């Protein structure tokens, strides 16, 4: 595979015209062996058109236009499918609003030489958050503690959205059967990787609240995460080779 030694950053967007023109070049500058796949859900603000312009001027940029807004999880799954089909050896996910610093990408890629999944973690030594009020801090920390307790895992930041997967992980964890979105999507992918026996490592990052635009977090996303964690546990997911025939 020609892209086996390269990585693809899957970047979902919806109304990110103020960010996409800057975040994509920043990602490309952070690592010479990284390409970007923008997955735009038909943003009414013209984000998709800006992404097309970037792609027209740089062969490392690709764009997937989806017909309507369908949630973060489905956007990532669509991007993962393309990245795997194109043969990338590693696939990353991150936010398009500079909450995740592109400068953190080389560290994740370096650790992925030995680890199967690398999580950019706010809650290990050296990690943290910036420009968050006490309410959001409490919600995030409480949500992670809740998910860890329900699922019985030691990962400190289950809901984080900066991750690097080796392609073997995404090929094995049965992506078509994933139905969660939002925070629950992040929890489920890490849970499935752990259940499949993959090595998951957390590296510290500092999460900075978005520079411009409005947060995509809603009460519906939070409530979904609360009950979906129990659904994830109840499903008792196992990789195909470990299931009874």
Number of helices: 8
Low-confidence stretches: none
- Sequence of secondary-structure elements: EHEHEHEHEEHEHHEEH
- CATH evolutionary superfamily: Spore Coat Polysaccharide Biosynthesis Protein SpsA, Chain A
Which labels suit this protein?
245 residues; 9 strands; seven-stranded mixed β-sheet; 41% helix; 8 helices; two-stranded parallel sheet; globular; Spore Coat Polysaccharide Biosynthesis Protein SpsA, Chain A; single chain; alpha/beta
Notes on the structure:
By secondary structure, the protein is of the alpha/beta class. It is 41% helix and 18% strand. It is built from eight helices and nine strands. It has helices at residues 17-30, 47-57, 72-85, 105-111, 134-151, 167-172, 182-195, 219-235; strands at residues 7-13, 34-40, 61-65, 90-93, 117-121, 128-130, 163-166, 200-204, 206-208. The strands form two sheets. The chain has a seven-stranded mixed sheet with strand order 3-2-1-4-7-5-8, with helices on both faces. Strands 6-9 form a two-stranded parallel ribbon. β2, α2 (47-57) and β3 (61-65) form a beta-alpha-beta unit. The radius of gyration is 17 Å and the shape is globular. The mean pLDDT is 91.
SSE topology sketch:
Elements: E1 7-13, H1 17-30, E2 34-40, H2 47-57, E3 61-65, H3 72-85, E4 90-93, H4 105-111, E5 117-121, E6 128-130, H5 134-151, E7 163-166, H6 167-172, H7 182-195, E8 200-204, E9 206-208, H8 219-235
Parallel strand pairs: 1-2, 1-4, 2-3, 5-8, 6-9
Antiparallel strand pairs: 4-7, 5-7
Helix pairs in contact: 1-2, 5-8, 7-8
């Amino acid at each position: 595979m020609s892209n086996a030694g390269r990585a693809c950053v899957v970047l979902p967007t919806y109304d990110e015209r103020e960010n996409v023109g800057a975040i994509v070049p920043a990602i490309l500058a952070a690592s010479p062996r990284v390409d970007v796949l923008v997955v735009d859900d038909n943003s009414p603000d013209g984000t998709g058109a800006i992404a097309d312009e970037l792609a027209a001027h740089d062969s490392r940029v690709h764009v997937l236009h989806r017909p309507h807004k369908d949630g973060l999880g489905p956007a990532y799954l669509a991007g993962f499918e393309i990245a795997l089909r194109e043969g990338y050896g590693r696939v990353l996910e991150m936010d398009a609003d500079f909450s995740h610093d592109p400068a953190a990408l080389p560290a994740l890629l370096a650790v992925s030489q030995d680890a199967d999944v690398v999580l950019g973690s706010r809650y290990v030594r050296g990690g943290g958050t910036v420009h968050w009020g006490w309410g959001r801090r409490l919600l995030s920390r409480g949500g992670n503690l809740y998910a860890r307790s329900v699922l019985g895992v030691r990962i400190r930041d289950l809901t984080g959205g900066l991750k690097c997967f080796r392609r073997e992980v995404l090929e094995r964890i049965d992506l078509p059967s994933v139905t969660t979105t939002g925070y629950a999507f992040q929890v489920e992918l890490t849970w499935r990787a752990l259940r499949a026996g993959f090595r998951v490592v957390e590296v510290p990052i500092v999460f900075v609240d978005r520079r411009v635009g409005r947060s995509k977090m809603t009460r519906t996303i939070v409530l979904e995460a609360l009950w979906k964690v129990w659904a994830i546990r109840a499903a008792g997911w196992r990789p195909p080779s470990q299931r009874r025939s």
